[in-house]
Design goal:
Blueprint: H1 2-19, H2 27-52, H3 60-76, H4 82-101, H5 109-129, H6 131-134, H7 156-178, H8 181-191, H9 193-198, H10 203-229, H11 239-252, H12 257-273, H13 281-295, H14 300-307, H15 309-320
Length: about 325
């Protein structure tokens, strides 16, 4: 009972703090927090394929771009409602995930990384050169926000609550999957695919499902991002951005939902805190990431969890008393 009360208490406290956050911060911090929520959704999806099944995916930026541009095109050029466009993004995520999942059945490691990088670059080149549809290097402007039927969002402050809702749902779904039989099957593929196959686990099916989940999360995050910034261009969706998501995954803790949130928070917020260093901030940031990768290869969350174990034990003893 004590073990159940503690996570519930912490979750409720964190949610209450997040609900009142827009009242305590300025517009700049609010924009960074909104970006953080989108990054959390993307990293949670990436965790299914890279964190749980061990398949390297560097095509996240391309999938994210497809989600953002599909939402932008359907809501501007075609004039569709934003929520209908989000349904289209779900179908798009399933299609892209299955398309990327099949090559993973025959490729792995370095070769799969090159395949996903190639996919991301193809997407970037297409949205750059199909000017009649995507606007090319000029990009898409005046993208409608994902308004509710009874409320129209006016800025980053109120749009934050929509992003928070999607993020909480994404976290709950990811937590459920990671700690389910499905999640354990994903982890068994990462640890030993041959042994998993021998035990009756359909490795090929699960790999495709993992890619599909990652694509769903990235496409939906792309739609939310386009609705937030109302202007998108190809320079946002680059390979370095995909590498940032891998860094979030590794720094926080691979395979762990709390680790995904922690890694996304650090990699999103830390560069903003270091901007006062001017031209040297990127060097310092990369050095810190490299140091953490060498000293804490399993990520920060397992280390923090181990350090807080005595406190958790004390909480349990007090609850029983």
């Amino acid at each position: 009972m004590a073990k159940q009360k503690k996570p519930l208490f912490l979750s409720v406290a964190a949610l209450l703090a997040l609900l009142f956050l827009p009242l305590c911060v300025d517009m700049y911090i609010q924009t960074v927090v909104n970006k953080l929520l989108i990054n959390i959704i993307i990293v949670l999806g990436l965790n299914f394929i890279t964190g749980l099944t061990g398949q390297m995916n560097l095509g996240t930026a391309g999938i994210w771009a497809l989600g953002a541009y599909t939402y932008g095109i359907f809501t501007t050029d075609l004039g569709w409602n934003g929520w209908i466009a989000m349904i289209i993004l779900i179908l798009l995520g399933i299609a892209v995930g299955r398309s990327l999942g099949y090559p993973s059945l025959r490729l792995g490691g370095f070769y799969l990384s090159l395949t996903t990088i190639g996919f991301s670059e193809i997407v970037r080149l297409l949205i750059t050169n199909i000017t009649w549809l995507t606007g090319g290097v000029i990009g898409l402007n005046y993208i409608p926000k994902l308004d509710l039927p009874f409320y129209k969002f006016k800025g980053h402050g109120d749009y934050y609550y929509l992003l928070l809702f999607f993020t909480v749902v994404a976290v709950l779904i990811a937590h459920k999957i990671v700690n389910s039989k499905w999640g354990r099957a994903f982890k068994s593929i990462r640890d030993n695919a041959e042994a998993s196959e021998a035990c009756g686990i359909k490795v090929s099916t699960l790999k495709i499902q993992a890619f599909t989940l990652a694509s769903l999360y990235a496409c939906l995050a792309g739609g939310l991002y386009a609705g937030m910034v109302v202007y998108i261009n190809p320079t946002t969706f680059t390979i370095p951005q995909a590498q940032n998501y891998i860094a979030m995954l590794m720094i926080g803790g691979i395979g762990s939902v709390p680790g995904n949130i922690l890694g996304a928070t650090l990699v999103t917020v830390l560069p903003e805190l270091l901007r006062s260093l001017g031209d040297y901030y990127w060097l310092v940031f990369c050095s810190l990431c490299l140091t953490m990768a060498v000293l804490v290869p399993d990520g920060l969350y397992p280390l923090i969890k181990k350090a807080l174990a005595p406190v958790s034990g004390l909480w349990g003893r007090r609850s029983k008393a």
